[in-house]
Amino acid sequence: MxxxxxxxxPVFCTVVxxxxxDKIARSQRAERADAAQRTLEQDALLRTRRSVTxxxxxxxxxxxxxxxxxxxxxxxxxxxxxxxxxxxxxxxAEPTGDATVNRAYAGLGATYELFLKGFGRHSIDDSGLxxxxxxxxxxxxxxxxxxxxxxxxxxxxxxxFLDFTVSIDVIGHELTHGVTQYTANLDYHGQSGALNESMSxxxxxxIKQYSLDQTAQDADWLIGAGLxxxxxxxxxxxSMKAPGTAYDDDELGKDPQPxxxxxxxxxxxxxxxxxxxxxxxxxxxxxxxxxxGGKAWERAGRIWYDTLTGGELASDADFxxxxxxxxxxxxxxxxxxxxEHQALQKAWSAVGLG
Length: 354
Prior knowledge:
single chain, six-stranded mixed beta sheet, alpha+beta
């Protein structure tokens, strides 16, 4: 894969969508509004920098031996915004006294392990790409992101959002943006952007389920559980099981995600609602996984991975394109007329994409 394919579209992917931060920035409580505004301003700056990086392109590692072990490095940004910061833990090193550092290290490892053991993929680029992450980024920074080269975690403001390393699915979510970058490279707007976000939610949830050895029935199907502060009326950022129910809070508003095409949101915000409409393919995956039962990464996850990496998914694909290709991937791997094929057809029909 050449560099022009790897990074031809400007993408800056955060786990907390801008529409949530916009709401908090209008809070009557000055400290909440100020933290959200600082995060929005920093995200805008980073988005511009990411566009420059994108245009330059990022080539996969060449000549690096591919092993079955990750190559993790954790840095401490020391509440500044210059990356990567001070190196505090390398691959194989003992845990530090900083729980945030250790959670980031473990989350990178869990992500690497699922992609390797579940799908035979060696790191983000399938060529042993080193996994770097910076923690303690900025002052009360209310987000986490993949910048095209590494992971970055804020500590949150301790009020609306807690430390962004507390949810392993958030770590997996952001790293999966890297996998998408190196494979289908889905455009980050409209339905292709919502698919981009959905891929990260799907594999982020699978990474959590894999690390907990959960079945599809046992999983909570929440993205960012434990991330919201104790005074927030909500359980997570998103729910794949029941989109639109993750939170209903005076500051955050009500979770706007639709579960079906009947509720599809047309908006110019958030790159055409990429964090909102991702609820539709998210829910389809949940329906497939629970219909098939067992460990969701073994069959449902395999079909989604095959679809994402199979080479047929165009960068501007819409929901119908993905639905069609996922059914084809199920047939190719498991045969026509089997449980997998039927589960796909049933799920896509249920969300209005039959």
